Amino acid sequence: MTINTVLIFLAAMIVVSIFILLENRSKRNRVSPNNLGEVGFRITKSILIFLLTLTVLAGSFLLIGPQIVPIVAVSFGLGTFFICTKSFLSLVFFGYPLTFGWVSAYIGFYELNNYANDSEFWVAIGIGALGIMLVFLGFWKILFRPEAK
Predict the structure, then answer these.
(1) For the chain, what are the domain ranges?
(2) ∠60-77-98 over CA atoms, to 5°?
């Protein structure tokens, strides 16, 4: 099993787990004969959130090199702005720089021998997973709020 397979599996597992957790958190959101009209709309939004999260994860490769400094500064600045406006978009902007943890683990795996056996690898995986969770939750809260329908 290669590192590519492991990272893709972890990303999919985190996103699907959070989706299942949030989708079934209350009885009113469960699929039943009474709310079948909303199911297609919810599935479309869920697919959109999944694709947006994977796009942000792929965009974390842009953080390689010296451009990480302005990108992270702008991301944290926008995250702070959206905190002041009480928007969940702040989760996306705070989570984006943290997704670089997976890029770091990916690069370290190929550059260093036995890197997967070190604690630095698992810390990078954990930071990247936290970033993906923040991004996913930010998109989820934005697209599934009551006034977004």
Answers:
(1) 3-148
(2) 30
């702040």: which residue's tokens? 90
Q: DSSP letter string over 11-66?
A: HHHHHHHHHHHHHTSSGGGS--GGGGGGHHHHHHHHHHHHHHHHHHHHHGGGGSST
Q: Check: CB of residue 49 under 8 Å from CB of residue 145.
A: no
How far is the C-alpha of 124 from the C-alpha of 127, rounded, in Å? Answer: 5
Angle in degrees, CA 133, 53, 44, rounded to 5: 115
Comparing C-alpha atoms, which of 55, 126, 67 is closest to residue 96? 55
Give the other-Cβ count within 10 Å of 20's Cβ: 10
- What is the full per-residue pLDDT of the chain (149 aa) written as tens digits? 566 666 666 777 677 666 666 665 555 555 544 554 455 566 777 777 778 887 887 888 877 888 888 888 888 998 899 899 888 889 989 998 998 888 888 888 888 888 888 888 889 989 998 998 899 888 888 877 665 44
- Please compute Rg for the chain using Cα positions: 17
